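As a warm-up, study this chain.
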Amino acid sequence: MGEIIKAVAGVLYQDNKVLMASRPAGKPYEGYWEFPGGKVELNESINEALIRELKEEISITTALEDLTYLTCIKQEFANDKTLKYTVHLDVIMVSNWTAEVNALEGQTLYWHNLKDQCDKEPLLATTTKILNLLKNYSKGNKK
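Now compare it with the structure written out below.
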């Protein structure tokens, strides 16, 4: 199975739209579309990690009360023919934040309307799973 990487993804939800980002140049899976977030550091909770990552990646500040846990996705990746790793991705809905969303890592940002088919490619496998989960979420009476 290889290394296990703990990571967190934030789903910024507003007016039936969610924020997606392309992975910046120089990172594994460069150009793939994902939700903002990143690795959980040692002795850091998933909520603390998400709050930190959102500030570092897209310049927003959010509070614990604005976070709602959605699910954990376990996904295997391979970055070459021999090295495989598994990502345990905790997915958290972000309902409120301060400051304007701003790409701080050179990534492209996109507000995807959940009523529409996502035409951004390529998508990370975890992004596809989150979008499928959100199709059901958007049918409810959320924001």
